[in-house]
Amino acid sequence: MATGRVDVLRRRDSYNYSKREFESYRNGVCRGDGVKHKNGFHLPSNVRNSGGSERSSNSSEPCSKNSKTRKSECLVQLPPEKKRKFSPIIWDREEKQVRVSSKNRVVPVIPPSPAHPTSVQNVLFDGVVSKSPATVVKSQDVEVSEPSVADCLEGSCQSEAPADLSTQLHSEQSGQDEQAKKNMVHPPNISLSRWASDSDSPRAPRDIADDPCSSPESGEIQREGSWGSRTRVSSSDEESSFETAGEKYYGEELCDENMNIDKHDGNAGVGINQLYSVSESDSEDDVDLPKIEEPAVPMQGSINMLQGCRSVFEYEKLNKINEGTYGVVYRARDKKSGDFVALKKVKMDVDKGCDGFPMSALREINILLSFNHPSVVGVKEVVMDDFDGVYMVMEYMEYDLKGLMDSMKQPFSIGEVKYLMLQLLNGVEYLHENWVLHRDLKSSNLLVNKEGELKICDLGLSRQYGSPLKPYTPLVVTLWYRAPEILLGTKQYSTAIDMWSVGCIMAELLAKDALFKGKTEVDQIDKIFRMLGTPDEKSGLSKLPGFKVNSVKQQCYNHLRKKFPAASFTGSSPVLSESGFDLLKRLLSYNPAERITAKDALNHNWFRESPEPRYDFKPITPDLHSRLVPKQQAA
Ligand SMILES: Nc1ncnc2c1ncn2[C@@H]1O[C@H](COP(=O)(O)OP(=O)(O)OP(=O)(O)O)[C@@H](O)[C@H]1O
Fold first, then answer.
1. Where is the composition biased (Polar residues) (predicted)?
2. Does an H or E element contain 286, and which?
């Protein structure tokens, strides 16, 4: 049907958008030739009159695959893509650990990279020791126990790095090594990270037996209704240290120091990870990863370390929103601006020893601070309370998709699903373009605000990927959304695992119910096979260790089509057109190599056929609001 059709195909570098941006377009901001669509899409003139017939809705090929000429016809002018704020951090490494001071805190020492010795220098000396005399923090307060940084550099401690690299680094840095020993950073007023060697798997059990953490620094001590404050020695910006329980803290001073480092490197915004020397280079990954544009100046959303870490007291706590595995999320108000924010308090007692900062939180903070996309939740800053509790200050989103669906009587309309899917795919495409796998996409990790904007949250399990693929942990992705290759034991996976989750989410949006609700991994794979059929040889799954020949035999995708029929007279099943079903099938393709990418999915015909995406979707319902805001606080 030609009327009301919206061509959502867009130029590769210009399809990141939000409805707000659509609206600014709607209000007259548009570029290029052609006609501006009422919903903000700018349709090239050669497309607007093409009608639906020439590109029939039966054509399930994504535009980009149809033909080159067709592709050029499909271009839509949209707002400029928002760029990632700075280079990604690479986490995939083994870290050495150095115990510092009597508190048994552990500082990671990152093996040098052969590819970028200079960057190794920066990593080591940015994160572990200060760079200049101006940033030295009272070295006499720090006692380095064995093995020391220098020992590791000399290869006398156990090291993952080849000996020659250590030697190379040592010869290049010999002068600085001595300085390094002297200038060891004092532990900041948040616990230093315990970088377990199996850093890939935040949810995997960790062996902490050899980490006799004795210091109760969890930051979980918190009085109900407060931010966990204790007597503040100083509330002024000038005073940068305070004493508690016989120990001296240099929180703000340290923040300042690390902010300095950020400023030097143009890596503003990674305050926490700089403190912990988050690995900036990787001997393998660096070779393969693309060079990503570095900004000349600190970007929006970064922490200005010269101002120090702000306190959580800048915010008024309103109510607890939710609690996940890795954090408790509160709704709060910025005392100065009056803006609502969400504060995610990092749980200090998961996926780590007892004294460290969780790897999952580091990853999440690092990625979210560096990312800037309308479909990825924005982190404004990181703040702390007086008990070393660390909070991510995020933009406040009224709903999560799961909660929203639970409270709805009817499933979303097709137009609403399209709009939500477009936003989801845009966010996923942005993550993948920036070499990040989310690894935990599910409806409860998709937030929606009252404007109907969808944003991906919870990047605690996300990680950067490179090429060639490395073995990763299989303990990722919540069971219901987990790709079959992971369930069957593959250790090398890539962006396709997120696309499988997107397929599960699309089905859930259509049916208002999760697609595969397995109770165990075996049950999950069984449910998938029953619905989609038994994978054949070509899928590649049959070679995986978990695949059993006696797995249930089903014909491919028949049951899925029954669940999402092209027409329904009873209204009991969600109706899905040929084109929509094609997209769903491609998202749920068994073969990861054949599974549709986010980029191609964005170009799928389903988004162009009627009904058009509901850009005016707004999920405000009184019952939802009262459910999310407890009565006493709403009053
Ligand atoms: N910015 C936000 N605005 C409003 N609510 C939020 C926000 N971020 C998170 N939430 C709510 O808190 C819940 C938990 O957040 P999040 O998923 O980040 O925590 P987690 O501990 O990593 O969870 P999980 O157990 O899923 O890993 C979300 O499902 C959502 O309901």
1. 165-177, 190-199
2. helix 285-288
Distance CA 221, CA 385 (A): 10
> What tokens were used for 452?
């109907």
Ligand 1 pocket, mutate which of 325, 329, 375 (most atoms under 8 A from CB): 329
Distance separating the N- and C-terminal Cα atoms of the chain: 49
For strands 454-456 and 446-448, give the pairing.
Answer: antiparallel
Tokens of 213: 């953490």
460 lines ligand 1 (CB under 6 A): yes
Q: Going by CA atoms, what residue is nearest to atom 15 of ligand 1? A: 324
Predicted pLDDT at 555 = 61
For residue 82, with 0-12 CB atoms within 10 Å meaning exposed, 13-18 middle and 19 or more buried, which class applies?
A: middle
* Residue 444 CA, closest ligand 1 atom number: 29
| Residue linked to tokens 């240099």 | 250
Q: b or e along 287-298 (b: 16 or more beta carbons within 10 Å of the residue's beta carbon)?
A: eebeeeeebeeb
Tokens representing 434 are 């920036």
Give the whole-angstrom CA distance, residue 377 versus residue 394: 7
Contacts of 522-530 with C-beta under 8 Å, sequence gap 24+, read 524/479, 524/480, 524/482, 524/487, 525/484, 525/487, 525/488, 525/551, 526/551, 526/552, 528/484, 528/487, 529/554, 530/554, 530/559
229 lines ligand 1 (CB under 6 A): no
CA distances from 19 to 25, 316, 419, 420, 437 (A): 9, 29, 10, 11, 25
Please say whether the beta carbons of 163 and 229 come within 8 A.
no
**Nearest residue to 57 via CA among 586, 578, 414:** 578
pLDDT digits (tens, 9 = 90+) for 325-349: 778 899 999 999 999 999 998 887 6
Ligand 1 geometric centre to CA of 548 (Å) = 36
Q: Which of 318, 322, 475 for a ligand 1 pocket mutation test, highest count of atoms within 8 Å of Cβ?
A: 322
Express each pLDDT in 73-124 by its tens digit. 333 333 334 444 444 333 333 333 322 222 332 222 223 333 332 222 222 2
| 326 CA: nearest ligand 1 atom | 21
Distance CA 300, CA 308 (A): 16
Count other Cβ atoms within 10 Å, centred on residue 85: 23
Asked whether the beta carbons of 272 and 390 are under 8 A apart, the reply is yes
Distance CA 161, CA 283 (A): 9
Residue nearest to atom 23 of ligand 1 (CA): 324
457 Cβ below 6 A of ligand 1: yes
**Residue 109, burial from CB neighbour count under 10 angstroms (0-12, 13-18, 19+):** buried
Distance CA 54, CA 73 (A): 12
Single out the catalytic residue among 7, 200, 286, 440.
Answer: 440
Contact call for residues 565 and 576 (beta carbons, < 8 A)? yes
Angle in degrees, CA 319, 397, 344, rounded to 5: 55
Ligand 1 atom 20, closest CA? 324
Residue with CA closest to ligand 1 atom 11:
322
Ligand 1 close to Cβ of residue 462 (< 6 A) = no
440 counts as catalytic = yes
What's the CA-to-centroid distance between 488 and ligand 1, angstroms?
28
Interval 290-332: pLDDT, tens: 343 333 333 444 444 434 678 999 999 999 998 877 788 999 9
Atom 16 in ligand 1: residue holding the nearest Cα = 458
